[in-house]
Design a protein that fits this description.
- The chain has 173 residues and is mainly beta.
- The protein has a single domain, classed as Porin, CATH 2.40.160.
- It has 2 helices and 8 strands, in the order H-H-E-E-E-E-E-E-E-E.
- The chain has an 8-stranded antiparallel sheet.
- The longest helix is centred in the first third of the chain and has 8 residues.
- The radius of gyration is 17 Å and the shape is elongated.
- The relative contact order is 0.19.
- This is Outer membrane protein beta-barrel domain-containing protein.
């Protein structure tokens, strides 16, 4: 449950840039960088560092990739500690200037409890997210993203998320 709540506060950055119809823009001018960072300390400690990079392919479509590292510790349980890492690729299509569709494939490696051996074992857990969101621009290249996603591959026994829905609020400068 805690991971799901933390996802509400994790910032995610995606730049929305205009590509002129005439002429070609160099790749370096179409690229954007950003990522997630979240931290919480207490009975439950959570740290998330997830940089990403992408490029505007057209005025409406962008794509990119990112890596993720998360540390999770729940001091109420013995063995309640997990180092989660992995990566993701994403695509985004602007339906309207501020409304977009989003697709993302994520693969995370984490400790999962094996009921047969009664031990924790590392395992890769995939996720396929689809959804959409709203982009509120501010400044020359910055803005805020409000993204609502649904994990089509959600598995309540293996997923690091407590539900198939993920809400992300992000900012970029």
């Amino acid at each position: 449950m805690f991971l799901g709540l933390m996802l509400l506060a994790i910032p995610e950055a995606f730049a929305q840039r205009e590509i002129p119809e005439e002429g070609k823009i160099p790749l370096k001018d179409r690229m954007f960088f950003g990522g997630n960072f979240a931290v919480s300390f207490g009975t439950i400690t959570f740290v998330d560092i997830s940089p990403l990079a992408g490029a505007m392919i057209t005025n409406k479509f962008s794509a990119g990739a990112g890596i993720t590292y998360q540390y999770f510790r729940d001091s109420r349980f013995i063995g309640g500690e997990n180092n989660i890492y992995g990566g993701r690729v994403f695509g985004r299509y602007n339906v309207l200037p501020s409304i977009f569709l989003h697709g993302e494939y994520e693969n995370l490696n984490l400790d999962l409890y094996n009921q047969i051996s009664e031990t924790f074992q590392r395992s890769w857990v995939p996720g396929l997210f689809v959804g959409g969101g709203y982009f509120a621009p501010f400044g020359g290249r910055g803005g805020a993203n409000f993204t609502f996603l649904y994990n089509l591959m959600f598995d309540n026994q293996r997923s690091p998320y407590n539900q198939p829905y993920v809400i992300r609020v992000g900012f970029m400068l």
